[in-house]
Amino acid sequence: MPSSAMPAPMTGSGPTSFSDVARESPLPWTPEASLLIGWLTRRSLANWSTARNPPAPDPGYAARVSTPTHPRNDRPSPPAPSDFAGRRVICFESRRASEMASLIQRHGGVPITAPTLREVPIERNERALDFARRLAGAEFDLVILMTGVGTRALVAEAAPALEPNQGSGGASEGDGGADAQGVSLLAAALSSVQIVVRGPKPAAALRELGLTRFITVREPNTWREIVEAVSALGDLRGKRVAVQEHGAPSHELYASLSAAGAQVTPVPVYRWALPEDTAPLRQALRLMADGGAAITLFTSRAQVEHALLVAAEEGLVERLRAALARGVVASIGPVCTEALRAEGIEPDFEPEHPKMGHLVKAAAARSIEILVAKGNRGDAPLPAQSS
């Protein structure tokens, strides 16, 4: 466009109306041009007005920008660590050792697994076979199942007693193999009696058999809650009660049921023994006694008993008790706590629920605070491992 055709710049008092702009514009008059010129006019008027009459300055703006809401020296100190903060954590799990180690790592700890137990099957378990025959003969009124592993082992060991034609190629009593027919007959026999399960794991084992009618003991799932659940069923005098053992006899349970008038038949399916290789356990106990690991997790009575048994063999019992008193001792529940106290060890806490995940989470949240309260710095966080 030639320079002579350009509209004159707006000076002086500025444009006052749409007509002023339209008269000065050399563009052809169209509806589109009308819309464009109208928009430009409104924008120009607004900009010109702001330039001639700027807003008054805000005296508080600079103060708001330059002064932080929280002065640096008034900021709260960072919270205490909510995890293990790189410290070593001793655990005595056997069958679930890898799961426990993973939980500890997830909460910032360095797991040291020292298995204390080994499940030893009972060869030719005559008591399990006798249980199956008596159950099928309606000689029990109530069956108490303590563990998921034990329930499955009981089925495997007891079902062969109910299999017909055992001399013609089927599984024989005591050979550890149960065919589908024997399992089906055992499940049918179980369905005819009242069943009490100690927790969700034996309940899951029963569901695998198609059994859904049973009573689940409330937490913390100790022998006391079992007695409570059984007593709620009615008078126990003369009742015939079979109890699936879980590695060791439950003497308190048997005594309480017998005192209420029940006839108790324990049915062992496996027993606890020390691991074949006890070197990791011995090394962990020595590390604890030397103060090299200040956080210890216990999840069963048998763990406590076996750990102290091996500590006695190593001559470490008194040093171990002293180290545990200075450190953090977490117990999964009341039965484990009773076992610790029987050995002169006072646990620092139990989790809200007697589950492994809850135990690790609670220990991660509380261990550093407990160590500080005891004046124990704990083992220093380990340096990162170079690959």
Describe this structure in words.
It comes from Sorangium cellulosum (strain So ce56) (Polyangium cellulosum (strain So ce56)). One of its GO terms (biological process) is uroporphyrinogen III biosynthetic process. This protein is α/β, with parallel strands linked by helices. Among the domains are: 131 residues, 3-Layer(aba) Sandwich (Rossmann fold), CATH 3.40.50; 135 residues, Rossmann fold (3-Layer(aba) Sandwich). It contains 15 helices and 11 strands. The strands form 3 sheets. The chain has a 5-stranded parallel sheet with strand order 6-5-4-7-8, sandwiched between helices. The longest helix has 22 residues. It is elongated. The N terminus and C terminus are likely disordered.
CATH domain fold name of the domain at 121-162 and 180-272: Rossmann fold
Would you count the extended β strands for me? 11
CATH class of the domain at 121-162 and 180-272: Alpha Beta
CATH architecture of the domain at 121-162 and 180-272: 3-Layer(aba) Sandwich
How far from one another are the termini?
72 Å
Organism: Sorangium cellulosum (strain So ce56) (Polyangium cellulosum (strain So ce56))
Protein name: Transcriptional regulator
GO molecular function, one term: uroporphyrinogen-III synthase activity
Pfam families: HEM4
